[in-house]
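Repro case for the chain-ordering regression, as requested:
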Amino acid sequence: MPHKTFLAFILPAVIAMLLFIALPIVSVIVQSLYVEHEQVLEEVENCGPFGCTTEVRVDAEATAALKSADPLGRFNGLGTFFNRSHLAVSEIGVILADNDGLGDIAARIYNLPFYKALLFTLSYTFIVTPLGMILGFLIALSVNSVSQVLKGPVIFFSLLPMIITPLIGSLILFWMINSQGILGSALQALFNDPTLSLKASTPLTWLTLFVYGVWTAAPFSFVVFYAGLQTVPGDTLESAMIDGASRWERVRYVIIPHLGPLATFVALVQLMDNFRVFEPIVGFSAEANATSLSWLVFNDLQGESTQLFGSAAATSLLTIAGVIVLLSPVLVRTWREFSNKA
Amino acid sequence: MKHVLSMAVSFGALCIATGAAYADCGIEAGSVRILSNDFEALRIVASEAEECASDTVTVTKNQTEEHKNLQVPALTIDPAEYTIAMVANNSLVPLLNDDLVQPMDDLVEKYGQDLLPNQLIRIDGKVMAIAFMANAQHFFYRSDILEEAGLEPPTSYEEIIEAAKVIQDQGLMEYPLIASNKAGWDLAAEFVNMYLGTGGEFFAPGSAEIAINNEDGLQVLATMKEMTEYMDPDYMTYSANEMKADWEAGRVAMMTEWGSLAGATIDDEGSTPEITGATVLTAAPTVGGGDIPAVALWWDGFALAKNISDEDAEASFQAMMHGIRPEVAEMYPEAATWLIKGYEPGAGAVGVVATANAGARPYPMSPYIGLLHTALGSELAEFMQGNESAEDALADVEAAYTAAATEAGFLN
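-- result from build under test --
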């Protein structure tokens, strides 16, 4: 394709990406470097149905003057990135300087909001991604061998978790695992423990979220792998059968190598998807036990009265950095495959 | 001449006809646009205000639980998207911080004959909002269960814990207590309530410096934690609406629940007459031997947007006066604890009235209380589950609040 045609062909996409991806990221970067102006405070008499009190309030006029003089706020450099709500550099310094051994260090670092969220986010990503892919692959294999009549309904039911809105799906499951819900009381009966609650302890909450994650992530892998299975060359499979390969050996030595590139693609998408885990935390009311990076952004923007835009922007950038680090091995691999072909 | 007369007559008839169709709010012209939270009492006020719509007056409303997120951007633009923002103690603060609402003294003088002096929210002497209902969490107990256990109705959290132990020991109920301990807003509100009961202040006087890391704070946390021993193991996932459901199902004997849900809890829907008949509403309990009810008092009212025309401001104020006229409180006595003139508290309102009369303190209106509320909501969760000491939890709250308040420009 001549360069000119190629350029004309790709230009709309490039413009859209600049406008809707690059520019917002630049804006977030700028925002993360600033914090709010100093608020001018004054004490005033405040009267209502329950009597009078003296309360502090913001001197709106003086603060507005500061704002209009410098609309972005006060320049804070990387200060927001290093404060307690994010990388907590000075807090970690204190912990490292004065502690009672490794266990204490780990516990105290885990107590910092960013690292707590990061640990859950990474655990979720690395547990749910492979398990979801394996489950999806197994579903694809079984659907592929189901008789033609049953295929339609089976595919429909396998896709259900993906069709349901994540928030709704997690809310439904949340009520089912309630100690009065069908799953919750079944588990209590099964383990003969009337105080068993999936929502009360951190490990069980994590487990619940992981199971939910696998349940909701599997259909995507299933769809892609199922499509991939239709392209497995019949001749190769037949010759493997003639050579006496068992079903497992055919899967291991013919199907899996054939689907390898697809698996890379699925892993790429799922890693990104799982790294931004958010809805199940809200749906399962799991904030007490599990928070993720996306949840931190949400929490900053859902403030009672004040939104912390700088803090949210800093967390977003750290999330982007995390995604880049996570994806780099897969991207490097794709690049190598591409160069080898070329 | 005859022709002119008949025209005048038919015009007069037309006027009478329209007069009958529309309530007479005395508004000449203008646009009334209401933004509010979404619960029964506010729905009543807004729909009463809607009666003022006429050929020259339009009344629209947007009632949503997302109102707090909408109000600042919607009132910042000029002209503002809404002329009236229905607010409470806490949600008025962001509007004041950004100077988005206007004083209503002139309008009160002109049209506010039916207002009581304590309905006027005066800040620095100016009327910035008008309250029409009060709300508070207060104590609910099951008289039948307490009688069966041979107990007097408790009046303090210490007595509640003792009573819960007796009820549990006698096998009357597995988990006699419940509280809105859901991590986030609810958990923070529980702390704020009980801390108000200790008489302590949240901030050092005149500054944004946090002041809860003290004996009072530790005592509040100890009480909150002790109560969880008598709660369902899922206690960290309950908010007010789930509490109401558990109460109506007869699984709980004592709770501190919102007055605005009292009417719906004791009505004949969703429960049995045995449970609702034995439900007693009373003042909120005290804590630690103090005599202040350990809850925050709230008012709900409305504020007038700043970036609107004088005509719209006047029309909006008049429409709201129609929405909160004395007859509204007469017609719907169970919907809320009205602050409106001539209101006689209904059965659902006795708890809020008793709490206010016992001297409960209002939810603070400091500009930075919201940041503290957010910090409390996320940092107390580990302590409540027994994974952290009370001292560490308060230190975490202090650190999280300080980081947020510094970023928001309240601290240096």
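Ordering looks correct now. The longest strand of chain A covers residues 41-48.
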